[in-house]
Specification:
- There is one protein chain.
- By secondary structure, the chain is mainly alpha-helical.
- 69% of the residues lie in helices and 0% in strands.
- α1 (2-27) crosses α6 (92-103) and α5 packs antiparallel against α10.
């Protein structure tokens, strides 16, 4: 019986991920999620309480999956950018869910989690800065936002809207990945201190 319950919950989560990515929290419909998952709405509510809690559960699972897939090696942040690039290409629904959460202004949707954000911890970045691996001028939080933005820039780019052409596989994707990783290397390179002018 427990296995049946776990399988039903997994189907609900999979259906909810697709529904929320397409329609956001406000536009998603619980009846569509339940129908796709082949589960009753009553079962869905018994597992998750309400639609907002289900949305938060999917976001948490997405975050954990991302964190598990990308490296946390602070000495290889360009590798983090490359891995995040690959993950954004493989799991576009994850980014769309984050976009919906921001657009809908949902405060405190993601409580603190044991796995934290993808990538290295702030204290590891500070240590790497002291050891000369990373430009010490960067605030760790701001640095990670910039690196995440580099990794997901092509996934979020409006280029296909302007050109009307779908994203090209193969060579184009590889070139874009290399560009994101190269930009990260330049961003991270320690710079000589230049005194500011009065």
């Amino acid at each position: 019986m427990r296995r049946d319950g776990e399988a039903t919950r997994a189907r609900i989560m999979a259906a909810a991920r697709t529904e929320f990515a397409r329609h956001g929290l406000a536009g998603a419909r619980v009846d569509r999620i339940a129908a796709e998952a082949k589960a009753s709405k009553e079962r869905l509510y018994s597992y998750f309480g309400d639609k907002r809690s289900l949305f938060a559960a999917v976001l948490r699972d997405n975050l954990q999956e991302t964190t598990n897939r990308v490296p946390r090696d602070v000495t290889d942040l360009p590798g983090f950018v490359g891995a995040m690039f690959d993950h954004a290409a493989a799991e576009p629904e994850h980014l769309r869910m984050l976009d919906w959460a921001r657009l809908e202004g949902e405060p405190n949707l993601l409580p603190p989690t044991p796995y934290g954000r993808p990538g290295p911890r702030n204290e590891d970045i500070v240590t790497a800065q002291k050891e000369g691996f990373i430009d010490p001028a960067w605030d760790p939080d701001e640095l990670m936002v910039l690196l995440f933005s580099l990794a997901t820039a092509w996934a979020q780019s409006p280029e296909t809207l302007f050109t009307g052409k779908p994203d090209e596989p193969g060579v184009s994707r590889d070139r874009r990945r290399k560009a994101a990783v190269a930009a990260a290397r330049r961003l991270l390179e320690p710079r000589p201190h230049i005194p500011e002018r009065d």
